[in-house]
Amino acid sequence: MLNLLTHKPSRQVILDAISQPALTPYLHAYDHPAWAPIINQPVMAPFVEEVLRMALEEAAEPLPVLTDELYGDYTRTGDRSSFERPYFERRRRLGRAAFALLAATQAPRPDPAQTATLTASFRDKLRDVAAEESWAVTAHVRPASGKDAMCIDLFSSETAFNMAEFITVFGAVIPTELVAELRARMRTQFFENYRNNPDGFHWTRGTSNWNAVCYQGVLGAALLAEADRELVADMLVLAADGRLSRFIDGFADDGGCSEGPGYWSYGFGWFAALNEQLEIQSAGRLSLFEGNAKINRIARYAVAVSLYGGQSVNFADGGSGPMSPGLLYYVGTRLGEEACVRLASENWRSRINEPKRRGIYDALRGNFFYWRRMFTHVPPLPAADAEAGAPEPLLPPDAYLDKLGVWVARGRDSAGHVWDVAAKGGHNNEHHNHNDVGSLLLNIDGVQMLVEIGAPFYVREFFGPARYGFLAARSLGHSLPLIRGTEQLQGADYHGEILRAEVDQPTVTFEVDATCAYPTDAACARYLRRITLDKAAGRLVLEDSVCGQGAKPWGQVNPAVPGLDATPFPAAVVEFALIFDAAATVVVESPTIATATKAGITLRLELADAGSEGAEGSAGSSKVHATASAHWLRVDKPTWHTHGAGELTHVNRLVAVPTADDEGDAERRFRAIMTVV
């Protein structure tokens, strides 16, 4: 087995590999008996039932219409959602119709009337989507009309691959002329378009998820549906010539993904899907995984950033939900990464306990590819396990991704609470960047306490010069201080240096020097942050130290920070802040005590003097040093719009300021001891 990217086999070797019949077809026809054990797994029965119900309910309904006005709306307003909501709903409904038809055909006792209804529905919906003038989303095309049939973006690539799947699986029930139209469109707009101008698309030169997703769609569709294997070989040669490998170059050497776990699941997930297809369709001759140790490290990243209760570390534009069980199971078994297999089972357990959860069926990319992959890669978890309840999962080891600059620590305290803490160094020019050097998050028993906003509602301005006016991306939206009224700035020059990152000890400490993350206007000689987790005691200590430049005394300032429509800032040089989400009830109980309550968990935040352990160092003590370095001041509620739905919400920004404002003291300190009460 040759690695297409590292070995770079000759064109003839590639052509021979993809021209021979696969030992096992990558996809069988919908009525082939090989589908029966996949569709009829007992653990999947609730999902089959719900998809069938929805598909039959939608059978007589037309798809939402994509009008010329909707195509042009992004150009006029910068709002992606008016077009993308019906765009993705069309693909979800088509995917449900197709998967329901597959399931109905493979049922132990098929219902001919039901199958006929679903067949007609699938044909109508396929014809409707196939007739779209442009398969790309309007935010990714240049013409003001919002249409560009030759644009190969994330979602036109996904659509092309879906069409190749449909031709392969359901070709017997698709009208012959429609199959011919689809083959011609894919060849012209995707295969020849890419082959003739491979560097004309930004994603072939990039290192982000775009590279892998677009390549999976274009190459995957060609491998499935293009009869001209000479053309397919040309496409693979171009991909192998330093283009597709750029995606792997985008990961840190430790396997870390600066885009976050959500984009890891997307980009690396589609890369893994292309690898699986290539290995099968080349009869084991070609691979994207084989012999590349970095692929294993990239796979292990998923375990490193997964948190208790199906959560994950969502720095940058990342989501905080569970990593894909099917993807984890595939890469775990393919690469021999047992930790990935275990995590797949744990994440799958939570999913099968909620088969009616709407998010499963309303997933943005809930198309046929989504459902097929879910059913094909099911971790070995018997249905009885979910019904009877499983033992408490073991916590993964702590993790430190030194090249990415992310630290994750976890442990159970003596009361049984699970603590997950994550913090980062890095720099402010990462993929899907936020200005967040030194930021941290805290989960307790899977409940998000100190939070990262992650991705906000995507609009045009968020991907342009105005990005850092959005709360999610600016340091104001993170648990970071304002220094002399300034926030961190974007760019690789604004970075942190990790001084200490301890793992797998009863007490662990992370320390970062984030001085260089702030601009010169901050007049900051040094900013240090130290985070210490005492696992058995259930105590997290956050310590900040900010030193001013001697040439510019701290003095009194009253900064006006855009984005805060709350109480005006007091005359303080440094503002320390912690971010809780809207679901938390955050209360300043006294100058040194605050509490945050969410989902039955109450976190006590006690301020103490730097270097003090409270009363005799006891966790949760109500006695603090007589001269605490800072005092709680207020809770601000800056607003933002949620990712996907675009709903207006807020965060609770708990603010503390130095207790004394002594111009002779160039250091400002903050020390918060956090415990569960």
Tally the beta strands: 24
- What is the 3D shape? globular
Percent of sequence in beta strands:
15-25%
CATH class wording of the largest domain: Mainly Alpha
Rg, Å, rounded = 27 Å
What percent of residues adopt helix (DSSP H or I)? 25-40%
If you average the pLDDT, what whole number results? Answer: 90
Verbal overview:
This protein is of the alpha+beta class and 677 residues long. The protein has 19 helices and 24 strands. It has 2 domains: 2-388, Glycosyltransferase (Alpha/alpha barrel), CATH 1.50.10; 405-676, Beta-galactosidase, Chain A, domain 5. The strands form 6 sheets. Strands 13-14-15-16-24-20-19-18 form an 8-stranded antiparallel beta sheet, with no helix packed on it. It has a 5-stranded antiparallel beta sheet with strand order 5-6-7-9-10, with no helix packed on it. Strands 11, 17, 21, 22 and 23 form a 5-stranded antiparallel beta sheet that branches. Mean pLDDT is 90; it is low at 551-571 and 612-626.
Summed up, what is this model?
The chain is of the alpha+beta class and 677 residues long.
How are the SSEs ordered, and which strands pair?
Elements: E1 2-3, H1 11-19, H2 36-39, H3 45-58, H4 68-77, H5 81-105, H6 112-130, H7 154-170, H8 176-196, H9 202-205, H10 209-225, H11 229-240, H12 245-249, H13 261-281, E2 286-287, H14 293-304, E3 306-307, E4 311-312, H15 325-335, H16 338-352, H17 358-361, H18 368-376, H19 383-388, E5 399-401, E6 406-412, E7 418-424, E8 427-428, E9 440-444, E10 447-450, E11 482-483, E12 491-495, E13 497-501, E14 507-513, E15 524-534, E16 539-548, E17 574-581, E18 585-590, E19 593-598, E20 601-607, E21 630-636, E22 639-641, E23 648-658, E24 667-676
